[in-house]
Design brief:
Helix content of chain A: 25-40%
Number of strands of chain A: 14
Distance between the termini of chain A: 51 Å
Largest interface: A-B, 53 and 48 residues
Distance between the termini of chain B: 60 Å
Shape of chain A: globular
Number of helices of chain B: 12
Oligomer: heterotrimer
CATH class of the largest domain in chain B: Alpha Beta
Chains: A alpha+beta (about 350), B alpha/beta (about 260), C alpha/beta (about 280)
Shape of chain B: globular
CATH architecture of the largest domain in chain B: 3-Layer(aba) Sandwich
Structural class of chain A: alpha+beta
Strand order of the largest sheet of chain B: 2-1-3-4-5
Number of domains of chain B: 2
Strand order of the largest sheet of chain A: 2-1-7-8-9-10
Number of helices of chain A: 13
Order of helices and strands of chain A: HEEEEHEEEHHEHEEHHHHHEEEEHHH
């Protein structure tokens, strides 16, 4: 019903789908096309689809991506340069298409990450035009996480598992249906139009309890204090050398991280040499060009790249945006092909755990 | 982008399968646009033949693998202002460099009826082992967009961009799920140079390293992960000993795995 | 200039300063944009070479100069090597200025010590022009410049001219001197004993390799200059110039937006570690 109404309103609706062994957001072909029973078991370096025995719609924790690629595009053109017949250079901004987009099934961690991406891309005068256009067109249907993955630790970062802000509509999926709440005027108008029966006190209590149980089921956590000063005081800790022997510097963690915002800008000339596109694309602090400076590289080795990533994410993000850059989604743990666990590394660096 | 005189370009072939030359031909319309900006003086596969012409830019495909190659590459270097090695054969010796670690003469004797008719060097080596190379374009084969970017850069008066990042970078930009994680398949992407657009992971299979080693390729960590995923040392050695077997980072990784087996 | 895309600029004049260093005087094609263009010494522009890419270059000209915008560039990377081939009349793209410049108003009434190394002098040359135009507002002026090789010193005549001005001291050092090098041979930090300024009322501006700046800061602080009056210009990879692409992050700062000029206290702890 919800999806049908969104489609009537002209939204392209994206929901979960299994693709290449992972749960991804794909366009729903019809209002009733939302799949049931999707689930994934996650562990460091491991993500395996499985079937939810209860055939629920949202019994999965998360996939490799949720909101980020729909606002901060993996690759897009920012402006064009064209040489005219007089040989003059003309520059034009590229206006990206920004369809009305509804994402169905985003999680509390995704919303917390979105708030950070908003802070990054919408700050300044002017805000990032491409991001801002798509942001305005976005409708978010959030879902309470009932079954966090083993890699999840949003309870310890204070970002989940129950959505508290930043959504248009939030759902909790119960055995006997959904509890829905509006978080915005758009969301409220939509719920009003659906004319749903009010949730019973028992259902409300069940949803609350489900959230508490999900939080309690999480086994990973970040050290329970602001890590800024701790990490910045241990920049020469031997653990950085040790983790560098295991890290592939592939950048998968930064790509799946819903708050990572680094991107490269480069120019792609047309074959006739008279025009060129200025393109931006996701980049990673694990890549060579990130620390490139004429003549040398600021971060030539994996040690300094991993340290840059972790200290930015957990420490200096506080200076930039008033909080840690980690929302506890656990994607960097599951999608690390070398099985590196951010929570374990942080605990060792913070002195809370012996190196294993 | 001042109206330049058209640079003279040659495309030479050494021991190779011609696949990298095909990358030129497969550019289609873009090749025509490009052809208007350069003068193609030697490109056997496309028509023009003038192997000894003085050129501004020579593309060299293939490895040095025969006694005749040794002499010819020197001549080409003398006649070319800039020389660009293209493809795995030219940059690392290619698949034919697998013989470098074996007794080549014995192989020839086993395979050919008249071994004396085969003039072959003991080792297949990259162009840079013999002459100064201005730029190397890795890949088996190189891709059309790579070639286009190189030529375009040079025509615009700048050195080509050297992208030594990992295949994973491109794979994630295209939103492919990591096959190592979602399927447990040993993938060479984390140590392999970008440029192919993550072709294989996009088809749900593993990268086999045809673009050669990326910068900071942590082959030790990847070999360890392959081990955890169930590959035994010989299998790990084979992953590194493939199209770019002689690229130093892959050669060392394969040797390490072999030593492990021998232990 | 708030748009993300550049404006067309034309090369008005090109000067070869050394075998690898050149200066481009640029003018925006759009006369109104050129007339409206203002910058503060220490800020930078993104220069775009058609089809190749952009590169951040500090503005070295005099901010009072309205006819052109000066950039001194070393041909090192693919874009700067391409820029080196530009000739008067050629066009390129320019967007800027970006970043935070030197706190020159705060420094009025003070002695000013300028410490530069290598091509680090470019953003500081703009300051010297600025100070000389308002000479009466500042106290003593000390220009300390270090280069690796004697032949790396550009703008020799300017240094000679500045050295003759009242209350102005020019101290030059080359790690490797030469027959025509009348100044100090050795490290630039060995010149600080000769510098005449009052640490109680001086401010210092530094630009150049980080190792040199760290050593210079040590000398200046030892002479009694307070940290709050020690400023430096940082260099990092910059691609967007507006605090978004993330390459220039230095701890919590975006060098392109929060810098490139910082107070010593903001960056000193992280400067002790390689890799940031």
């Amino acid at each position: 019903m919800l999806v049908a109404r969104l489609m009537e309103l002209g939204y392209r609706c994206l929901g979960p789908a299994a693709e290449n062994g992972a749960i991804v957001m794909r366009e729903l072909a019809a209002p009733d096309a939302l799949p049931r029973g999707l689930q994934a078991a996650q562990a460091p370096g491991r993500y395996r689809l499985q079937q939810d025995p209860h055939q629920r719609y949202f019994a999965w924790a998360n996939g490799p991506q949720a909101i980020k690629p729909h606002l901060f595009a993996p690759r897009e053109s920012l402006w064009r340069a064209q040489r005219d017949e007089q040989g003059r250079l003309r520059f034009t901004a590229v206006a990206p298409p920004a369809p009305m987009l509804a994402l169905i099934g985003v999680r509390a961690c995704d919303l917390a990450a979105l708030a950070l991406q908003d802070a990054h891309f919408l700050q300044g005068d002017p805000p990032d035009a491409h991001y801002a256009r798509r942001r305005e067109q976005l409708f978010l249907v959030a879902v309470q996480c009932a079954e966090p993955a083993s890699t999840c630790f949003c309870a310890s970062t204070g970002d989940g598992p129950t959505p508290t802000a930043g959504y248009d509509i939030a759902l909790a999926e119960l055995a006997d249906g959904f509890v829905a709440a509006a978080g915005s005027r758009k969301g409220a108008a939509l719920l009003d139009a659906l004319n749903l029966p009010p949730a019973s006190p028992q259902q409300m209590a069940a949803a609350r309890q489900q959230g508490q149980a999900a939080a309690a089921s999480q086994t990973r956590s970040l050290p329970g204090r602001a890590l800024r000063d701790v990490l910045m005081g241990r920049l020469e800790h031997p653990r950085w050398d040790e983790v560098a022997t295991r890290c592939l510097a592939c950048g998968n963690c930064t790509a799946v991280c819903p708050t990572c915002f680094c991107h490269a800008e480069m120019d792609e000339p047309a074959p006739n040499g008279q025009a060129s596109e200025h393109v931006r694309m996701w980049d990673s602090c694990f890549g060579e060009s990130h620390g490139h400076l004429h003549g040398f590289n600021v971060r030539p080795d994996i040690r300094s790249r991993y340290r840059q990533w972790l200290t930015h994410k957990l420490a200096t993000w506080h200076d930039q945006y008033g909080r840690s850059g980690c929302v506890g989604c656990g994607r960097c743990i599951a999608w690390c092909p070398a099985e590196i666990d951010l929570t374990a590394e942080a605990a060792v660096l913070a002195g809370d755990r012996e190196p294993s | 982008m001042r109206a330049p005189t058209r640079p003279r370009v040659a495309v030479h072939k050494f021991s190779s399968c011609d696949g990298c030359q095909l990358a030129f031909l497969n550019l289609g319309e873009d090749l025509l646009a490009l052809a208007e900006r350069v003068e193609l003086v030697h490109f056997a596969e496309a028509g023009p033949l003038d192997p000894d012409a003085e050129v501004d830019l020579a593309f060299v495909e293939g490895s040095v693998s025969t006694p005749a190659d040794l002499e010819r590459i020197q001549r080409i270097r003398r006649h070319s202002r800039m020389l660009i090695a293209i493809g795995a054969c030219a940059t690392a010796g290619g698949i034919q460099a697998l013989r470098n670690g074996a007794d080549g003469a014995q192989w020839i004797a086993q395979i050919y009826g008249r071994p004396d008719a085969v003039a072959s060097l003991e080792r297949s080596t990259p162009i840079s082992s013999h002459v100064a190379v201005d730029f190397e374009l890795w890949g088996c084969p190189v891709s059309g967009p790579q070639i286009l970017a190189v030529v375009n850069s040079l025509l615009l008066g700048a050195a080509p961009r050297d992208d030594a990042d990992k295949v994973c970078t491109e794979c994630k930009r295209r939103n492919f799920a990591c096959v190592m994680v979602s399927r447990g398949i040993p993938c060479m992407g984390p140590v392999t140079r970008a440029g192919c657009g993550a072709l294989c992971p996009g088809l749900g299979r593993d990268c086999y390293g045809c673009y050669g080693p990326a910068e900071n390729a942590n082959t030790d960590a990847l070999a360890a992960q392959f081990g955890r995923q169930g590959l035994d040392p010989p299998a790990i050695a084979r992953r590194f000993r493939s199209i770019n077997s002689q690229a130093p980072a892959f050669l060392a990784a394969a040797d390490k795995a072999r030593m492990k087996r021998d232990e | 200039m708030t748009a993300r895309q550049p404006l067309e600029a034309i090369v008005v004049e090109r000067t070869q300063e050394s075998p690898t260093i050149f200066t481009l005087q640029l003018r925006l094609s759009d006369a109104a944009a050129q007339a409206a263009y203002r910058f503060a010494p220490g800020q930078f522009n993104m220069l775009y070479l058609a089809g190749v890419g952009e590169v951040p270059i500090s503005v070295m000209s005099d901010p009072q100069e309205r006819d052109g915008i000066g950039h001194t560039i070393r041909a090192l990377g693919r874009v700067t090597q391409g820029l080196a081939a530009l000739r008067p009349g050629d066009s390129l793209g320019l967007r800027g200025p970006y970043g935070r410049g030197w706190p020159l108003r705060e420094m009025e009434g003070r002695d000013v010590v300028l410490v530069t190394g290598g091509l680090g002098c470019a953003p500081v040359v703009s300051v010297i022009h600025y100070l000389l135009r308002r000479r009466e507002r500042y106290g003593k002026l000390v220009v300390i410049q270090g280069v690796k090789h004697a032949e790396d010193l550009i703008w020799r005549e300017q240094y000679d001219r500045w050295a003759t001005l009242p209350d102005t001291q020019v101290l030059l050092a080359a790690n490797q001197g030469g027959a025509l090098w009348p100044w100090h041979v050795g490290h630039v930090t060995e010149l600080f004993e000769q510098a005449r300024f009052d640490p109680g009322r001086a401010a210092a501006l530094m630009c150049g390799p980080e190792g040199m700046m760290r050593a210079a800061a040590e000398k200046l602080l030892a002479r009694g200059l307070p940290e709050s009056r020690l400023h430096l210009s940082m260099e990092r990879n910059m691609q967007c110039a507006v605090g978004r692409c993330g390459h220039c992050q230095f701890g919590g700062a975006f060098v392109c937006r929060d810098g490139p000029v910082f107070d010593w206290g903001q960056v000193k702890s992280l400067l002790e570690h390689r890799g940031f």
